[in-house]
Amino acid sequence: MNKIGIHFGYFNADWETDFLKQIPQVKHLGFDILEIAPDAMMRRTKTERQRIADFALENEITLTFSVGLGADYDLASENDDIRKRGISYTVEALKIMNQMNIRMYSGVNYGAWNTTFSEKISDKRPAWERSLKSICEIMKTAEDLDITYAVEVVNRYEQGILNTAKEAVEYVKQVGSPNIKILLDTYHMNIEEDSFSEAIHTAGRYLAHFHVGEANRKPPSLSGRMPWDEITGALKDISYEGAIVMEPFIKMGGEVGHDIKVWRDISEGADETEMEEMVRNSIHILRQKMAQ
Ligand code: MN
To answer: How far is the CA of 152 from the centre of ligand 1 (A)?
Structure first.
């Protein structure tokens, strides 16, 4: 059975939280996974991180890492100092993960997230090659630590290197490591792919992590317009065994609202109980459709 997870940003205005409260909260809602970010862990001491890892284990919650690299750590940067800083940052994140026994490192982990595209994108090959060079250096650490490194295919407004599953397959083949995999996200697929089903089949055995959300980043529901039957059907077709992690962002304000560009109250005034009810419903829908 696929594990179902949620990104911690759903419950928080900023990219920080009290994980010792969040872990039992998501467990209580019925999740298997809490997806967290490297920065929040890097700000903590080794002892504090270990406390979180131990507490997750006690609560039977699997932790996963998802990152959106800052411009200062752009693994595809033309500036070699920035690129090397990105490599050091990533290696550090992987080491922290290993200490916490976390095995999934996903997201925009191959270049800068919300990039400004200073370079002309009529030819993205140079950026692609620089990204590839950085990742190939990093993969040795990922392999040694047994960490899966899933590159997220995102929409054109957030990154230019990997916008489709087809591009991601070419990219992971070029990296050529058993630990490099793909993360697809319905929110981004809705913008860039011709077909959800075809994209999932294209990613095939390289698909190791899957993000779900409605087109406006509401939690998966039957009143949205994502074709959940088609999406879950394709996941079952390829015998997908990885995690399904929802990434809903529906509140304005704070770092999360700003970085995700939430410019209206998408939640329509939902309070915490209603927010919890929405994702509880999403879990139910996903479990039911994956079991059919
Ligand atoms: Mn995502």
So the answer is: 7
* C-alpha dihedral (72, 77, 83, 89), degrees to nearest 10: 40
Instruction: Name the active-site residue from 158, 193, 214, 247.
Output: 247
Q: How far is the CA of 163 from the centre of ligand 1 (A)?
A: 12
User: Structure pTM?
Assistant: 0.97
Q: Is 52 helix (H, G, I), strand (E, B) or coil?
A: helix
Is 152 catalytic? The answer is yes
pLDDT given for residue 235 in this prediction = 98
Q: What is the Cα–Cα distance from 53 to 57, expressed in whole angstroms?
A: 6
Identify the pLDDT of residue 122.
Answer: 81
Ligand 1 center to residue 136 CA distance, Å?
23
Residue 47 three-state SS: helix
CA of residue 66 to ligand 1 center, whole Å: 8
Q: How far is CA 247 from CA 5, 185, 188, 283, in A?
A: 9, 9, 12, 12
How far lies 146's CA from each of 53, 138, 140, in Å?
Answer: 17, 12, 10
